[in-house]
Amino acid sequence: MFEGELEGELPEGIDGEVVLCRDKRGRLIGSGFFNSKSKLVWRRCAPGKVEFTRETLEKQLLRAFKLRNVFQQSGRGEVIRLVWSDSDGLPGLIIDRYDSWLVVQTLTLGIDRWLDDIVQICREQLNPERILCRNDAPVREKEGLSGSVGVLYGEGEPSGKWVDVHGIRMWIDWKAGHKTGLYLDQVEQYGKIAAYAKGLRVLDAFSNEGGFGLACARAGATEVTCVDSSAPALAAAAKNAEENDLSLKLQEANVFDYFSASRSEQWDLIILDPPPFAPNKRSLTGALRGYKELNLRAFQSLSDGGILATYTCSHHVSSEMYLKLLQDAAVDAGVEVRLLEQCFQPLDHPVILGFPESEYLRGYVLEVRR
Ligand code: SAH
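# S-adenosyl-L-homocysteine complex -> structure
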């Protein structure tokens, strides 16, 4: 919560501690990490009164791990976000599992203090081969923390590791890759969209390391083009393609420019997975314009019967807003659109009902008819 949302004066000298708070209307809102240096001065870890001890930490971690057991049942493998910050009652803590490796981020002062205990509990409970620390996120600065990347547990310091993602081998560059090495929130979608891809000409726009594109190529797409503005991301996609003996066409470009420059191209399946255009409310109007433009270009470039898988990871863009801009874009493109599937963030990124910001990822699979 922001300063203005809490009752009374901000306390002094307790940065990093867990305190019970009330909102402006005097209602008890629970116990959470406090940090007067951060814009988000208070972040909840429990609805009631808790002393945050090692026991509390262990309990919250075990709950988070248990929830992810569902993935084992569904054959998702071992590439999972084990702990997702506020949504697991551990504000600022990220733990991603890449098979026998764990990559940890502590992004609040409150949780950073517990890093040694977190490592110990993870070792006891999960017996990982390695625990790595990816604490170079700029948000740490706002908490008054410095950056550090390195090994917390395990021998040596390898640069990365191959993991199995829905039958595709992907290289995890835990040090330099986006986030902790992979967009774990989209992994489930790779398989879902690949199911449409057989025999189709596919464009994976905002491809990053090629997760969608590779899954489509494996599923029998006739041709897959990945477009991204980041050369390192495309180099990673090339490495992944080679490892899997799959072929990708790689284009380093701004996706908007790419669509303009390739007006004569037609695709049967387009994936649009851009970065958040609306990271805050202020940027909403521009973001809606950007999303509409992007989807319009995609509709114009799809063959009759073509499929568009389009995603937004902007919390501020609601489902209603997105569906409306899709319909506006469809009208402008002169196409009729069928909504085949609605997609949502996976269960290793759980939404807290009283914390709307935790809901951010939406996707729509559409069929386009001319
Ligand atoms: N689909 C990817 C995740 C995409 S994240 C996956 O599953 O891994 C967004 C990607 O868009 C990043 O790789 C970033 O480099 C790229 N990007 C951001 N703005 C872009 C633009 N205007 N044109 C092309 N790529 C862009």
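# post-check
The first strand starts at residue 18 and ends at 22.
Residues 277 and 287 are 5 Å apart (CA to CA).
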